[in-house]
Write a structure and sequence with these properties.
Elements: H1 4-12, H2 16-19, H3 23-26, H4 28-40, H5 70-78, H6 85-97, H7 103-120, H8 122-134, E1 142-144, H9 147-152, E2 157-161, E3 164-172, H10 178-185, E4 196-202, H11 205-233, H12 239-271, E5 274-277, E6 280-283, H13 285-296, H14 304-318
C-alpha cells in the first residue's frame, strides 16, 4: 500500500494541467475535454493539493447516472502507478461521457467527486499507518480496503490484528452529518455484517481555526515580501514613500508576532486529532495511537442491539407525546 502523504507532496508541486499532460499524446480529444471541464471548475492552473477541493464553483452536482460509485472509481485508480487527483478526475470524466454530453452535469459530477476525494484518501492513509504501527506488536497484522467492502459491508478498513478482525469506520464527525452516521450505524442504509465494528470519528472542525490562522500568517508573510521588493526598487530620494513602506512592514511584523501564540495553541489542539498534509486532512499519529490503545485495552464491545437502542432513543422520544419543563438557562 502506498504512502499517501508522500504522494500528496508530489502532487502539490504540480498543477491539474500538469496532471493531464500525458493525455496529449494518448487521447487529444479527451485532453481537450479535461482542460475544458477543469477550466469550468477553476482548477486547471492550481496545485493538486487539498485546498483545490475547496471553494469550487457551484454546479449541478448529480452523478449523471454513471454506473460506478466514486469509491469504486477511486479504488480502481489508486493502484495505478501514475495516480493523482487529475487522473482520478479524468477517469470520472470518461465515466460521465458514457451517459451524458451536458458539460454542466459533467462539471458537477467532477466537483462532487473532488470533494469526495478528501475522505477517500484518508482510508488508504489510515490503513498504511495503523498497519505500520501494529506490525511492531503483531507481524501478521493486515489491513485491506476496497469499494465492495466500503459500500456493501460498511467497512472502510478491515483490520486483522492479534487473531481478531476489526471493521473500522472512518468518517468526519459533524452535527450536520450526524443523522446520516446514525442511519448507517443502525442499519437504515443497509444491514451491517457480523463482527467487531470500530467507529473512529475525525473531528476536522478542530483544525479549521488553526488552518485559518496558518493561512493568514502566510498571507502576511507574502505581503512583507512584496513590500520589501518595493522598498528595494524605491529610489533613495523618495524618502516619504520609503518611510511609508517601512512602516507597513513593521505593522505587519507586529501583527504576525501577535498571531503566533494563538497559532501555536490551535496547532496543539489540531495535532491531537489530525494532520494537515498539503491541504489534505488525515488522522494524526496521536489520534491513531489512541485508537490502538483502545483496541489493546481489551474493552468489551457494546452489543449491537444496545447501541441501536441508544442511537434510536432521540427519534423514539420525539415521535411520541411528551411534556417537558424548562427552568433556568442550562
Amino acid at each position: 500500500m502506498s504512502n499517501i502523504r508522500e504522494l500528496c507532496k508530489v502532487w502539490s508541486e504540480k498543477t491539474y494541467r500538469d496532471g493531464i499532460e500525458y493525455l496529449k499524446d494518448e487521447n487529444e480529444e479527451l485532453f481537450s475535454s479535461a482542460v475544458n471541464i477543469f477550466e469550468k471548475l477553476q482548477i486547471i492552473d492550481i496545485p493538486m493539493d487539498g485546498y483545490s477541493c475547496e471553494h469550487l464553483p457551484k454546479t449541478e452536482e448529480s452523478r449523471t447516472g454513471i454506473k460506478k460509485t466514486y469509491s469504486e472509481i477511486f479504488h480502481e485508480e489508486i493502484v495505478k502507478d501514475a495516480f493523482s487527483p487529475a487522473t482520478y478526475l479524468v477517469r470520472l470524466l470518461c465515466e460521465c461521457k458514457g451517459t451524458t454530453d451536458d458539460e454542466s452535469q459533467i462539471a458537477g459530477a467532477l466537483a462532487r467527486g473532488l470533494r469526495t476525494l478528501t475522505s477517500l484518501l484518508r482510508e488508504p492513509d489510515f490503513a498504511f499507518i495503523i498497519k505500520e504501527k501494529l506490525n511492531v506488536k503483531d507481524a501478521n497484522t493486515e489491513t485491506s480496503l476496497n469499494a465492495k467492502q466500503d459500500s456493501g459491508d460498511h467497512t472502510d478498513v478491515l483490520l486483522q490484528y492479534n487473531n481478531t478482525e476489526y471493521r473500522i469506520w472512518l468518517y468526519q464527525f459533524s452535527s450536520r452529518g450526524l443523522p446520516h452516521d446514525i442511519e448507517r450505524l443502525t442499519g437504515k442504509r443497509g444491514e451491517l455484517p457480523p463482527g467487531n465494528h470500530l467507529i473512529c470519528p475525525l473531528k476536522t472542525e478542530l483544525a479549521i481555526e488553526y488552518d485559518k490562522l496558518r493561512k493568514k500568517k502566510l498571507r502576511l508573510e507574502l505581503k512583507i515580501k512584496q513590500y520589501k521588493e518595493k522598498l528595494n526598487l524605491c529610489s533613495v530620494k523618495a524618502a516619504k514613500k520609503r518611510e511609508e513602506i517601512s512602516l507597513n512592514i513593521v505593522k505587519i511584523e507586529e501583527e504576525i508576532k501577535t498571531l503566533i501564540p494563538e497559532l501555536k495553541k490551535q496547532k496543539r489542539i489540531s495535532d491531537k486529532e489530525l494532520d494537515i498534509v498539503c491541504g489534505w486532512y488525515f488522522y494524526s499519529e496521536a489520534h491513531i495511537k489512541r485508537i490502538i490503545k483502545y483496541i489493546d485495552s481489551g474493552v468489551k464491545p457494546i452489543q449491537y442491539k444496545k447501541m441501536v437502542k441508544i442511537l434510536s432513543a432521540p427519534e423514539k422520544f420525539v415521535s411520541e407525546i411528551h411534556m417537558f419543563e424548562k427552568g433556568e438557562k442550562i
